[in-house]
Amino acid sequence: xxxxxxxxxxxxxxxxxxHPTSQVIQTYDHKFLVDCGEGTQMQMSAYKVxxxxxxxxxxxxxxxxxxxxxxxxLTSLGxxxxxxxxxxxxxxxxxxxIELQFNVAxxxxxxxxxxxxxxxxxxxxxxxxIEIECFRVNHRIECWGFIFREKKNMRRLNPSAIAKHEVPIxxxxxxxxxxxxxxxxxxxxxxxxxxxxxxxxxSYAFCADTGYFENIICKIKNVDLLYHESTYLDALEExxxxxxxxxxxxxxxxxxxxxxxxxxxxxxxxxYEDVSxxxxxxxxxxxxxxxxxxxxxxxx
Amino acid sequence: xxxxxxxxxxxxxxxxxxHPTSQVIQTYDHKFLVDCGEGTQMQMSAYKVxxxxxxxxxxxxxxxxxxxxxxxxLTSLGxxxxxxxxxxxxxxxxxxxIELQFNVAxxxxxxxxxxxxxxxxxxxxxxxxIEIECFRVNHRIECWGFIFREKKNMRRLNPSAIAKHEVPIxxxxxxxxxxxxxxxxxxxxxxxxxxxxxxxxxSYAFCADTGYFENIICKIKNVDLLYHESTYLDALEExxxxxxxxxxxxxxxxxxxxxxxxxxxxxxxxxYEDVSxxxxxxxxxxxxxxxxxxxxxxxx
Lengths: 300, 300
Prior knowledge:
The structure is a homodimer. The first copy, chain A, is α/β, with parallel strands linked by helices. Chain A is about 20% helix and about 25% strand. In chain A, α8 packs across α9.
């Protein structure tokens, strides 16, 4: 299970009580931060998200509404005497910005930061249970989306089939991993005859800031939860195109073509005080749509 | 009259609903911003302080809790299509930090910024009615305080004395400016015999982050309102000294020695959830003391 807590759902500037982009993605073992607009640390405090356990931060691109809160968060973690290393994944240039600010303050963090520059679509983080892959989106400057995928769960042994074929206990693990069983009489028994599908592995795709971009559809195919920006409503599609942003309708079209389970809309323009029309517009194309609301935790 | 609106009164990190340092000082003609911690633009929005008319920003020093909100504010002003030039007064290094961040975003502001590096105690801004002087305080890195002084108001003519000495109208302006009158018979009549004191000229001193520092007393002598940091209570005086900060008692001692009219305490450590003890401690030394509360407008 993945839990996505929205800390900011507005674009460009804070407005109408909404904040610039930031989200926390939690698994049983990890807490990942995606983007870090100004005020993210205050939003964490408001929604009781403790930042101490975050060891990986993903910054989609270097427009300020996606990272101006990072220096403050890193500073506060230092003042709180953090010791664990922090890993930051972003386009090139961020390291220089952060280090310059610590240098002028003659400040020395009590924990190390490792900056990882994104430069190709690949898995940027993984452990036994999860992998995180970055992919390019289509924005005015270099910009990356991120997919969080639980690794495929082990298959479940089918006790009656195992008894029938007299499979020895020493082969159970192999079966759980999906391999076939070869009996003492050299008969191959297919894995699917001895096991059942394991529990579902959840996935979440964060599509950052992007114009309508069909290239991402194959990347995010079948994810359980898709966060796609929708800065504007369809009436302002031209503006969306010119600014490399999407409309609610376009976000829904991507969700539909990618066959995702659920769509979350966000990055709303400050032009809109009320965002309920985004959900209405998108759900005409893709029904299972919600507006990402700050402080709310969405499950995938 | 000067009106000081507190946007942030906490030190180092946001905590207990308190924000890092920022204040707006308003006169009839101007709106000045002093320091700009993270979230300042949100605080402006919360307290209905419109930033469009701010043309001068004073940054006391380059610790993050005093300027991490600046880049976001400047960006938002640009997105709001500001055209007027902005003047920023700060220690050296800020220009590079700001420009680097605009460069990586390939962002171009629609208004010019002039960076003024503080390097000596002097008047950094003045017009006919007000002058703003910077002065050094004693902090871990280069740090500046600012005094806002209304210029001396013209003296008021004393009608009966003018009639008695038959002063011609052509000399009134000279008298208002404080000069003596020389009668046709070459008799010198002292200005104070012909005029009265003009209206009071108000003054406000912002003392930034500083350890107890007697050098500032002569600078801020007799100001109407003094903002002096008090990061700690007296029980933690050693900590205050080690960190180049002050206690409430020390702030009050400065206020008393400088003979100011009123003391405002701020920059409270996050160690203190309740700040009422600061007022109690300081008022034992200097009675007319208040804690600077966010959203409150204090007059000088």
